[in-house]
Amino acid sequence: MGSFSHAMQTKNLFAAVDLGSNSFRLEIGRLENGHLRRVQYLKETVRQGNGLDADRNLTEEAMQRGWACLARFGERIAGFRPAHVRAVATQTLREARNRDVFLAQARKILGFPIEVIAGREEARLIYLGVSHLLPDSQERRLVVDIGGRSTEIILGQAHLPQTLESYRVGSVAWSMKYFPSGQWTAAAFKTAEIAAKAILDEALSHYPRSRWDQAYGSSGTIGAVADALQANGWPTGTITPEALDWLKEKLTKAQRPENLRLEGIKDDRRPVLGGGLAVLRAVFDLLQIEEMHPAQGALRHGALFDLIDRENPTTDVRTRMIEWLARHFGADTAQGERVARTATQLYEQAMTGPGTEEDKQRSLRKLQWAAQVHEIGMQISHSDYHKHGAYILENTDLQGFTVDELQRLGLLVLGHRGKLRKLEDPIDDPVFVQQLLALRLAVILCHARREPDLQGIQLQRNPPSLAYQLILPIGWENQYPQSMHLLHEECIAWQKSPWRLNLRLA
Question: By the 8 A CB rule, do 117 and 125 touch?
């Protein structure tokens, strides 16, 4: 009874975990009448960003700090539905060469998958978080987020981001590099700002002053600067170049973080304030910002809103991105949809075994996406289009997708024709095998590029057996001899794997 009541309690709860370079954060929200209400917010200063050694490996100490924090977060979200939790890691883990070591243990401790997201996906989620917590408006927004090791800059309108970039410059990285002894000098600030501008310089062409009406700042550094300015009598909710000059002067006079006597600055922020301020001043100068408003929303909020959008296929950004990808590479979209419908029918027929209905629907949606883009490599090569399609998927930044998801889609596209030998590891996964088989059969049945006759066709499997049966109506082989030939070839292909496909006329 206890576990049932706990499940009921967590039914409408969503959680986002942000494994940032400076802090780890947990945001829990409850969905009520279409609105997200905060239930709990936890933040711990983990400082993984300064735990990278000279070879870009996370130190044992930095990993331990991260694991200890995730254990506390994991306890809080135990029992949440997997589809209601999204844990994302950003620049430090993008850079860390030994990230797999950290993540393997981290996932066990947290009890949920952890995604290392690309810079542009981070930028998209930041914008989503900021825009959802701002009043509805058609103003053109510039959003800046200075994290520990990266800075995201986004242009967007309403809830739609239009230009997204991530730059490898941040408060922790810049504090370590340009204020290594912890000393705030005018010369160090000057060097740090010039270095930040050198990296951010290309932003000038993407974010000209003519393309936005209002600038907003999200999260860490900008939030800390805004709090400090407000506590010292500057107008609430506005950051200006004059205010940044004043703050820089206060830091250089204090010389060191421990000497700084300034209201509104939290102790955990002091060591990285110099680096963050240098980057912020560089952004202001480059993009000609006269005033910036600190925003409430951040990456973690964006991850929550994204989870809710994913609940509905019509609002899932991934569906839109797949459609765009198919169009962009000139794929035959009618054939893609045809293969998707056929694969769906076959997959649903064979759907057995453990896993929630939710899990099965998620697997089905990924199969449909793979079907829609299975021909995106056609423009490059007709004979090897499956290989080129897989390469495109594995090397593209598609909004909403994790690196792992794109890799999985790439494997389905790679495996939808030809030999199965190229797919060694995934062939051990029954869900992947079922997706792959449904896709391969659908491509065969749709080979004439018209709607196939599926009446009387049935795909079956009785676990734990590794054999699938494709049941065809009697006389089908005479009506569709080419399709029958291709199906016989398909049976032979599966004989070279642990799995089997058998044909039966009934």
Answer: yes
The answer to whether the beta carbons of residues 300 and 31 sit under 8 Å apart is no
Q: In what order do the strands lie in the sheet with 13-19?
A: 35-45, 23-32, 13-19, 85-89, 114-116
Each residue's pLDDT tens digit, 1-24:
344 344 446 678 999 999 998 899
Q: What is the CATH number of domain 120-298?
A: 3.30.420.150
For residue 19, list its beta bridge partners: 24, 89
Q: What is the pLDDT of residue 5?
A: 44
Q: CA distances (Å), 9 to each of 23, 30, 34, 36, 81, in order?
A: 28, 10, 17, 16, 11
Crossing angle for the helix pair 333-350 and 430-445, to the nearest 10 degrees: 130
Helix boundaries (H) for 149-298? 171-178, 186-200, 203-206, 220-231, 241-254, 270-287
What's the predicted TM-score (pTM) here?
A: 0.80
Q: What percentage of the chain has pLDDT greater than the value 70?
A: 97
CATH of 312-452, one of 2.60.40.740, 1.10.3210.10, 3.40.50.10240, 3.40.1160.10: 1.10.3210.10
- Single-letter code of the amino acid located at 405: E
